[in-house]
């Protein structure tokens, strides 16, 4: 388990005295540092050409099996790159709204800083691979071989050649764009090479999908003041609320898996979603899910893997006295009254990052020609 040290100094009444700036670190609360600057990836240095290619791949509905879905369908760019519905539809041309994808699509904010992905941590920790896996899922189903009910299946065997065919032949306008971005002619590349290059281009675009420079960050570095309610919420966050025991570090996540009572077993011991257990087979992992980042949390409703809460107050209260027999013992004994919940919410609102640029959130319609 990753453990972050949260160091605060409580010495006086004013916020300056009570939360002094550490002269060595330059911040008030060690363990809740600002989002770091993202260095160039040695195997994928930034270029405008790669970024432009990534934007096009993210927005092109022609890269789905039905021709109606793109990445922004589930990670809507204008609203923090997250789904605005509890569950999204798998890619298909049907009239009904069932079945749906089994888990809520979380925001892509700060994905480039994450060491692990997905609610259950499945399918590895390679960012480039993560960016293109949806083409092999029901999410995009570029090979158009998955039935609507097969929302858990992966079709890499069909998706990789289908993506290659789509980008190098069906939509030939992508050929010069890959050449400019990576110096390769994808018409003579392998399926695997095109798969990886597409992931690299999408990852370059994600470099700007970052939540940082929040009101908390500025206060934490000795800048503008926070309100009394938010400061009380911070005290609860790092203190008796025990939030920072899991929501720590620059992204306010330990990137571990915890059971906080979001998939409680029924009378027969069956859970709707077994979470991390589906990956590890470890009985202790039943009902455990990845700790989500809290940056811009006030703007990324709904919450939890099953989107079962739409308000932050409900999320906080769900952490108090969870009924799941396998719940994380960190939660034992946490008691918060309504005023404390309100203060915590005011603190969490201070984690909203600076607005993303219009260029980052634009929905692109000027796509490569066929």
- Content-based structural category: mainly alpha
Number of strands: 2
CATH superfamily caption of the largest domain: Cytochrome c-like domain
Outline type: globular
Termini separation: 49 Å
Low-confidence stretches: 1-5, 7-13
Strand order of the largest sheet: 1-2
Helix share, percent: 25-40%
Judging by the overall fold, what is the CATH architecture of the largest domain?
Orthogonal Bundle
Determine the strand fraction and express it as a percent band: under 5%
| Number of spatially distinct domains | 2
Q: Average pLDDT value?
A: 93
Rg over CA atoms, rounded to whole Å, is 22 Å
CATH class of the largest domain: Mainly Alpha
Number of helices: 13
Reported by name, the CATH topology of the largest domain is: Cytochrome Bc1 Complex, Chain D, domain 2
Most strands sheet = 2 strands, antiparallel
Order of helices and strands: HHHHHHHHHEHEHHH
SSE map:
Elements: H1 15-18, H2 48-59, H3 71-74, H4 127-132, H5 156-170, H6 174-182, H7 191-206, H8 215-220, H9 228-238, E1 257-258, H10 277-280, E2 289-290, H11 312-318, H12 338-349, H13 358-361
Antiparallel strand pairs: 1-2
Helix pairs in contact: 2-6, 2-7, 5-7, 9-12
């Amino acid at each position: 388990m990753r453990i972050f040290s949260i160091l605060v100094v409580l010495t006086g009444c004013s916020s300056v005295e009570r939360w002094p700036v550490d002269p060595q670190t330059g911040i008030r609360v060690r363990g809740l540092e600002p989002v770091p600057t993202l260095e160039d990836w040695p195997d994928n240095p930034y270029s405008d050409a790669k970024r432009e290619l990534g934007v096009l791949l993210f927005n092109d509905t022609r890269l789905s099996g039905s021709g109606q879905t793109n990445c922004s369908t589930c990670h809507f760019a204008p609203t923090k790159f997250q789904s605005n519905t509890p569950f999204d539809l798998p890619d298909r041309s049907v009239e009904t709204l069932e079945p749906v994808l089994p888990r809520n699509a979380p925001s892509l904010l700060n994905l480039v800083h994450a060491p692990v992905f997905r609610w259950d941590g499945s399918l590895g920790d390679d960012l480039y691979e993560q960016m293109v896996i949806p083409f092999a899922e029901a999410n995009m189903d570029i090979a158009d071989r998955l039935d609507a009910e097969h929302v858990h299946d992966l079709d890499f065997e069909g998706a990789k050649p289908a993506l290659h065919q789509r980008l190098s032949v069906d939509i030939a306008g992508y050929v010069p764009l890959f050449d400019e971005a990576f110096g390769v002619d994808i018409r003579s590349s392998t399926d695997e090479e095109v798969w990886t290059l597409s992931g690299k281009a999408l990852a370059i675009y994600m470099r700007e999908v970052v939540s940082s420079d929040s009101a908390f960050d500025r206060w934490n570095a000795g800048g503008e003041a926070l309100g009394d309610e938010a400061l009380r919420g911070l005290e609860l966050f790092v203190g008796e609320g025990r939030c920072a025991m899991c929501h720590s570090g620059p992204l306010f996540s330990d990137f571990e898996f915890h059971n906080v009572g979001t998939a409680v077993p029924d009378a027969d011991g069956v859970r709707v979603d077994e979470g991390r257990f589906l990956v590890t087979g470890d009985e202790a992992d039943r009902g455990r899910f990845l700790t989500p980042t809290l940056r811009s949390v006030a703007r990324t409703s709904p919450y939890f893997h099953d989107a079962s809460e739409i308000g932050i107050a409900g999320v906080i209260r769900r952490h108090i006295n969870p009924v799941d027999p396998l719940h994380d013992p960190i939660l034992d004994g946490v008691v918060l009254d309504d005023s404390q919940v309100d203060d915590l919410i005011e603190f969490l609102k201070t984690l909203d990052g600076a607005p993303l640029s219009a260029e980052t959130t634009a929905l692109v319609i000027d796509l490569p020609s066929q």
